[in-house]
Amino acid sequence: MIAIKRRAAELGFAATGIARLDRNPHADELDRWLADGHAGTMTYLHRQAEKRKDPRLVMAGAKTAVVTLTNYFHGDRIPNPEPRVPRVAQYAWSSDYHDVLGRRLEQLASAIREIVPGSATRCYVDAGPVPERELAQLAGLGWIGKNMMLIHPDIGSFTFIGVVLTDAGLEPDLPFEADRCGTCRRCLDACPTQAFAGPRDLDARACISYLTIEHRDEFTATEATQVGDWLFGCDVCQDVCPWNVSFARATLDPGFAPRPDIARPDVAQLVTMNEQEFERRYDGTPFTRPGHRGMRRNASAVREP
Ligand code: B12
Ligand code: SF4
Ligand code: SF4
Fold first, then answer.
1. In a mutational test of the pocket of ligand 3, which residue from 180, 186, 247 has the highest number of ligand atoms less than 8 Å from its CB?
2. What is the DSSP string of 101-127?
């Protein structure tokens, strides 16, 4: 399977591993997390649960997952050092990663189909019912930290996970069994909203990333205070992680070149911008997920804490 990994490296993936598909060994954790209400209004996670618990159900005949990591770190741990300057999480500083990675994964998938003639493939990045962090751990790419992030021992956690499912029976890598968090709990203590109910148990309802990206309603007064300086997403539980402090290196990947209009947008303009103007400026960027209404809500909360 060296040929597949070589092709993945040529396509710009920072690390690639192979996992055999089986029932998710942490299916009970997912059930408990959902039953505790920690998914908030992300009802799609309830609907997708059976597939996440057994990824063989995602694609008929699927046997293997080829799992990739892509580094998106931009080398700036505190992008806006001045107080009260709105911040955008680093994963969103460039054009939509779903598009860039989707294209690269399709190229990797076609290499798999050439290497294993007659095989079928299907690509996923973020948007499908695939337990991506679990598969990355099973493919030997790292461990799941107390902040729930997949941490690669040489790269850290500022990575996107992309997956190609295939019915080809590829030789799997060994899972990454070690838990290298040890006694550390910096992420849990640093979270500005204390959103962690415990290690590897994030109550999304209190997470700034959920509030600013996934939450559809207007903010309550408490939520508006909780988001603090974050206009879109949040990096705190990754910024403080010693594995990122030591190993995260800025990417030079042109596909993820930072765009100032997204990394540091004009918040006053966002509050007053009409929908047509929003679409003209931000089409094809991560801001389309909360959309015009959501970004205006976020911008208002950041401006008037
Ligand atoms: C829903 C979602 C969110 C929600 C909920 C987050 C959460 N912690 O679950 C919200 C909106 C809050 C969110 C935020 C973020 N997200 Co998000 N999100 C997802 C999504 C779509 C599903 C995740 C999910 O199923 N959550 C439910 C939990 C219960 O499942 P899980 O995370 O897979 O956790 C499993 C393991 O923890 C395991 N487990 C439990 N205990 C143990 C113990 C051991 C030893 C092991 C091995 C496993 C294990 O059991 C769980 C259930 O199977 C994935 C994409 C995908 N399709 O998987 C991206 C994804 C997880 N997000 C991602 C990113 C980048 C982020 C943010 C960093 C964005 C930002 N900067 O604002 C934050 C980080 C917040 C955080 N600390 O988790 C990346 C993570 C990449 C990585 N290196 O880990 C993903 C994989 C998208 C991608 N393709 O790159 N996200
Ligand atoms: S992303 Fe921010 S708010 Fe969410 S758990 Fe991490 S530190 Fe807390
Ligand atoms: S900050 Fe510490 S506990 Fe949290 S994920 Fe990193 S190593 Fe693990």
1. 186
2. HHHHHHHHHHHHHHHSTT--EEEESSS
